[in-house]
Write a structure and sequence with these properties.
The protein is mainly beta. A four-stranded antiparallel sheet has the order 4-33-32-31, with no helix packed on it. The chain has a four-stranded antiparallel sheet with strand order 5-6-7-8, with no helix packed on it. Strands 9-10-11-12 form a four-stranded antiparallel sheet, with no helix packed on it. Helix 3 packs across helix 4. The chain is globular, with a radius of gyration of 25 Å.
């Protein structure tokens, strides 16, 4: 196979892959990136390392030559064409070996845009009962929590060995990176103390158990909501509840697993047992939200661990003024911060979106496009929520778009005024109990059929 690019002779690179000879250029291989298999063969200037030239020419790779041909063409053209005889599963595994998974994914589906998503597949749950949470991984995979188990899927949507928590029920789960999952859990039947563990995503092995300490004493606690910082000093955050109803936020170093900080609940506030944590990279703060129905009132705050202070807070308790909150308004079910917009978005159980100005701690909720229901309709919905286990609305923010699950669909809001621009929905599966965005995919977990959907943006050209 001869490269179509024009290059000087010293730029030529020859490979022997499984007995088949390939010629290309270092310029083409540079498209693979420094962290790829090919990047390891070159120096910082993408000149072939002399050690390899002296030992073997051509460079021998004991892998599948048909897959290598497809991946090499992908580096040359940016397009992916898979011959009919070549199994996609084999190609994807070869792409992982060469460190080209991101290249294949980018060619398989286009850049993420909520207004262009299409339903590509649905996967039935692997455990009895309803799933409780779904989390998208950074590489296009996901994990689904069912009771005391977490089922893990790679970016090919093949299931890995599940994570078993024995007698503990999963509270929250999150991807620390593409290879590791952090799980928080609560005790069940008094058999074990809830805590937090780090698992290998590929084989389900427990790699590390986290402990919380205060004044040089190890304390038992129940771990709740999780968040991960994206700064150079990578941290894991978890809400903590002690046996004596001690509440706070624990902080652990991602590299060492050691606890590095703990923020205790200030007098008169309610941090512990938080429903949502969110790391805000621009302000280096952590959003902590305790929501209805865990509390009769909603508490939202921003914590700055550098100064050990609460730098912003809001609650609907004692709301007054010219437009006091109604009972329905106060039942906030989810909250997330949008730093670029200097606001926090909230949604209540009746699927109304509201916005709180981060620049003022005295801000009230500004409800957007409220669909006021008549009292009879609201009464009927309250009765329905009381009879069934409800799937409350959830929020997500990705690439300047706002997403909100509403019963059996997900609405996409775009623009400075958050106008409804599209809605993602399929005809069966029941209400959406959770959804997550990551790896250029949106995953939606349905409650009734214990199934999750995978939404992707179509590729720019039909190459796969």
């Amino acid at each position: 196979m001869v490269s179509l690019g024009i290059s000087i002779p010293n730029d030529l690179v020859t490979f022997n892959v499984g007995g088949k000879i390939f010629e290309t250029t270092s310029t083409t291989l540079a498209n693979a990136g420094r962290n790829s298999f090919f990047g390891a063969l070159f120096d910082q200037d993408w000149n072939l390392d002399l050690h390899h030239q002296q030992l073997q020419s051509p460079i021998f790779i004991d892998r599948n030559p048909d897959c290598f041909a497809v991946l090499l063409d992908l580096l040359r053209t940016g397009e992916l064409y898979v011959p009919p005889h070549l199994p996609h599963k084999l190609l994807f595994k070869e792409a992982q070996f060469y460190g080209l998974s991101d290249h294949v994914r980018a060619a398989k589906w286009g850049p993420f845009d909520g207004n262009c998503l299409r339903l590509t597949t649905s996967i039935t749950g692997r455990a009895p009962g309803d799933g409780t949470a779904i989390r998208a991984g950074p590489d296009g995979g996901c994990c689904v929590a069912h009771g005391c188990m977490v089922h893990v899927y790679d970016w090919m949507l093949e299931e890995h060995p599940p994570l078993h928590l024995d007698y503990q029920i999963v509270n929250d789960v999150g991807w620390m990176d593409a290879n590791h999952i952090v799980v928080s859990a609560c005790e069940r039947l008094g058999r074990a103390d809830g805590g937090m563990g780090l698992f290998n995503a590929a084989n389900g092995e427990l790699r590390h158990k986290f402990q919380v300490q205060h004044e040089n004493q190890v304390k038992s606690f129940t771990a709740g909501a999780l968040a991960f910082s994206s700064s150079s000093y990578k941290k894991i955050y978890s809400s903590c509840k002690g046996r004596s109803n001690e509440y706070g936020i624990g902080v652990w170093d991602q590299e060492t697993g050691q606890q590095v900080d703990f923020f205790y609940e200030p007098l008169g506030w309610s941090l512990g047992d938080a429903d949502r944590l969110q790391w805000l990279p621009a302000s280096n703060c952590l959003l902590v939200a305790t929501l209805f129905p865990r509390k009769d009132n909603c508490y939202i705050s921003l914590l700055d661990f550098r100064s050990k202070s609460m730098v912003w807070s809001w609650s609907d308790i004692g709301a007054s003024g010219p437009n006091p909150l109604l009972v329905d308004d106060k039942r906030v079910r989810d909250a997330l911060a949008m730093e670029d917009a200097c606001s926090i978005c909230v949604v209540n159980e009746f699927e109304d979106l509201g916005f709180i100005d981060l620049r003022s701690s005295a801000s009230s909720v500004r409800w957007s496009s409220r669909s006021r229901l008549v009292n009879a309709m609201k009464a009927n919905k309250r009765m329905q929520l009381a009879e069934d286990e409800p799937c409350y609305p959830k929020l997500a923010f990705h690439d300047s778009q706002l997403f909100s699950s509403m019963n059996d669909s997900i609405s996409v809001f775009s623009g400075p005024d958050w106008v409804l621009t599209s809605r993602l929905r399929r005809g069966y599966g029941g209400p959406i109990c959770d959804f997550s965005i990551g790896g250029d995919r949106l995953f939606a977990l349905h409650s009734e059929e214990n199934v999750f959907d995978v939404w992707e943006a179509p590729p720019s050209s039909n190459t796969l």
